[in-house]
Every structure is written in structure tokens, then in C-alpha cells.
Amino acid sequence: MGRHAERAAAQAGASEDDCETMPDLSNILREPRYDLVKAPTPLQRLTGFERKLGRPGLYMKRDDLMEIGLGGNKLRSLEFWLGAALRERADIVLVAGGATSNLCRLTAAAASMAGLDCLIIHNAEDTPANRERSFLNRLFGAETRFIGPVGEDERGAATKAAAEELSRQGRAPYIVGDAVLGALGYVLAAFELQEQSRREPAPLRHVVLAGSMGPTEAGFIFGNAMLGHPFQVHLVSVEYGQAELEARISRIYDGLGERTGLAIGGLDHAPLHYHMAHLGGGWGVPTPESEAAIVAFARTEGILIEHVYTAKTCAGFLDLVANGTVPPDEPACVLHTGGTASLFAQREQFRTVS
Ligand SMILES: Cc1ncc(COP(=O)(O)O)c(C=O)c1O
């Protein structure tokens, strides 16, 4: 095992004996990475829910508990994005997203740590409310530009145009967001979780993730395949219908195969389950169940989750446990992907808590 693989294994808590049997990560660890995440993040037993539901084996992987920018899944991707930016000798990173985007906030935080400037293109109106929502980005030293409520394609074009303009001015811009590169963070996270799982009284059988743009999910599914599929993976869609979600994941998964050169079999062989019941009115629109999940996690575990991503995912997790999809003797884990900062801008969306 090479130096990089040893480091990943050590971060994941593996002993030397374990390392002998680990699949070869060298193709992934060859990519430059900027250190942002002290792995492993906690694998926390949900003892409150175990008591309440009268069953053992309920866990949360706390990717919200990281040192930088209030943490979250995007930091694992940013390790690779900033690694690439620094390799290319960029001096400014560009990123695009809504006013409360976790990607934007974490990019601003990570860029400040890496000594890079950061320009954020917000596809939102320039209103006092949106400026307040993006306050942390400017606190981290990023410049924020509001281009109005345009779609993903127009936002991408505006970001590219801003990067070209910067190049003309003699700057070296790097656009954050390559889905395949970002997904590598969650390939490694699957290994990390597997190492933690092996140290529990009974290994995890089910992992529940948000189904959204895809890098987190596709990376985890790819890592799970490299490991020989120890986990049944459940995706709770929070953004797209099933066909669109499947297409996004499949594109990134195939891209991972090409980038790493690892032939690990197609997605159709993966133990993968799509759950659409919590999508409700779509991205960012709360449902009675998502609000109930926020309240239940706050009052049962003292854990904060928010409306857009984690509430629906956790509502799905509780459903799968309640309806027996996750049987009482099969340990299950929900991934907390962070985003908790958004909760402070969501107070008016609550119906049951004033
Ligand atoms: C808190 C949080 N969870 C989950 C996701 C979804 O991750 P992905 O875009 O990798 O599907 C995001 C994406 O922005 C997020 O901010």
C-alpha cells in the first residue's frame, strides 16, 4: 500500500492489518487534494430514536461536524476541487449557487483557508433578504454578485463569462463544481464509513442519503461498489423526479469509472433504492413530514437539520425504519450532509414551532 492510501486508511481509522485487504485507492489518491476534513467524522448512535422506536442499530454519520465553515458534504468535494485549483496555480475560485447555497458558503470558507480569492455568482435577486442570507460568504472574504433568479444553465454561462473576464485581467481563475472530481470525496467517505461500521457491534447494512445533484450519492455508490457492496444505499429525492435523478447519478458514476480507470460494474448491479415520497412540492418546499423530522431530531437527539436537504432525508430514514424496509435487526445510518446554517433563514417556513 502506497503513502497516500496509507493516509486515507489512517484517516478512516484502519489498522495496518485491515490495510492489507483494502481495495486499491491509488488511482483516486493520485489526484491532488487540499486537506479540509479531519476524517473520520463521527458515526453517532441515535440512542434517543433507538429508545423511542424500541430497536437498536440506528446511526447518523455526522458530516455536518467539520471544522470549517460549519461543515457539510461539499467540503469533501472541495478537497479535490481546491487541489485541482492549486495544481493549476489558480489565484481565484469561482462558484455559483443560490443565496443560501452551502456549496458557496463552504467554497468561500475553504478558499480563505487556502489563500485563494473567491467570487460567488448568486442566481438570486439582489435584495436585502438575499444579502443577509449570503452574509457569511462575504464574512469569509468572498465577493458576491447577484445575477437574478436564472436557471442552472444561465448561471453556468455567467460564471464562465466572469472567469474569462478575470483571465483577460491577468488573473488565474478556477471554476469549482466538476461533478466527477467532486464525487471522489464520497468515494473515500464510503471507505471511511465501512471502517467505522466494522467496529460497531453489528455492521451497518443500510445507508440513507439525500438524492439531489448527484456527486455525493454517485461517489458513495461507486465507493460502495469498490468495497463489494456492503451497504444497501437508499436515496431520498429532495430535488428531482426519479428519471432525472437516476440519469444524473449514472452520468457521474460512469465518469468516475473513466476518471479512475476502475472497472467495478454498472449501476444496474448496485444495491440502490430510490425513494420519491418526500419530494413533495420540490426542492426547498417543506412538507409536514420534513418539518416533523426537524422537530423530532431536535427533540429526540438534540441534532439540528434543515428543510431543504437533511429534513426530507431524515424523514425518509424514519419512514424506512417505521415501514420495515430497514428491518429491526439490520443497522442503518442516515448521512447528515450539513447545511444547518440555512435553518436560521427558514423560521417563517415552520408551521408547528413559532
Ligand atoms: C446540505 C446538503 N446536503 C445535500 C446536498 C446534495 O448533494 P449533491 O449535490 O452532491 O447531490 C447538498 C447540495 O448542495 C447540500 O448542500
Q: Rounded to an integer, what's the Rg over CA atoms?
A: 20 Å
Strand order of the largest sheet: 1-2-10-7-8-9
Shape: globular
Bound molecules: pyridoxal-5'-phosphate
Helix content: 40-55%
Defining traits:
about 350 residues; alpha/beta; four-stranded parallel beta sheet; 14 helices; binds pyridoxal-5'-phosphate; Rossmann fold; about 45% helix; six-stranded mixed beta sheet; disordered N terminus
Annotate the secondary structure layout.
Elements: H1 3-11, H2 16-19, H3 26-29, E1 43-45, H4 47-53, E2 58-62, H5 74-87, E3 92-97, H6 102-114, E4 117-122, H7 128-133, H8 135-139, E5 143-146, H9 152-168, E6 173-175, H10 179-198, E7 206-211, H11 215-226, E8 232-237, H12 242-260, E9 272-275, H13 288-301, H14 310-322, E10 332-336
Parallel strand pairs: 2-10, 3-4, 3-6, 4-5, 7-8, 7-10, 8-9
Antiparallel strand pairs: 1-2
Task: Explain what you see.
With 354 residues, this protein is α/β, with parallel strands linked by helices. The protein folds into two domains: 3-70 and 179-349, Rossmann fold, CATH 3.40.50.1100; 91-171, Rossmann fold. Helices cover 44% and strands 14% of the residues. It has 14 helices and ten strands. The chain has helices at residues 3-11, 16-19, 26-29, 47-53, 74-87, 102-114, 128-133, 135-139, 152-168, 179-198, 215-226, 242-260, 288-301, 310-322, and strands at 43-45, 58-62, 92-97, 117-122, 143-146, 173-175, 206-211, 232-237, 272-275, 332-336. The strands form two sheets. The chain has a six-stranded mixed sheet, sandwiched between helices. Helix 5 (74-87) crosses helix 6 and helix 13 packs across helix 14. The longest helix is centred in the middle third of the chain and has 20 residues, at 179-198. The protein is globular, with a radius of gyration of 20 Å. Pyridoxal-5'-phosphate binds next to helix 6 and helix 11. The site of pyridoxal-5'-phosphate has 15 residues, from helix 6 and helix 11.
